Amino acid sequence: MVVAAAAVVAVVAAAAAAAAAAAAVAAVAAAAAVVAAVAAVVAAVAAAVAVAVAVAVAVVVVAAAAGTPATDPGRGFA
Fold this sequence. Notes:
Blueprint: H1 2-66
């Protein structure tokens, strides 16, 4: 009887350890999901910044080619 009780205790302890391990794995998976979401946001912001920089460069290039007062201070006052 004592051996059977010890076996039951061992099985319960093993089940508890397995549940704790599963909870730890779930926590790691949740943390990985958060990291992935943050990485996606960072990538989206980087893409938006890249587009904004490209537009700004294009505006400056077009303005320089047109010789606007911003790039040719004497123009527009003649």
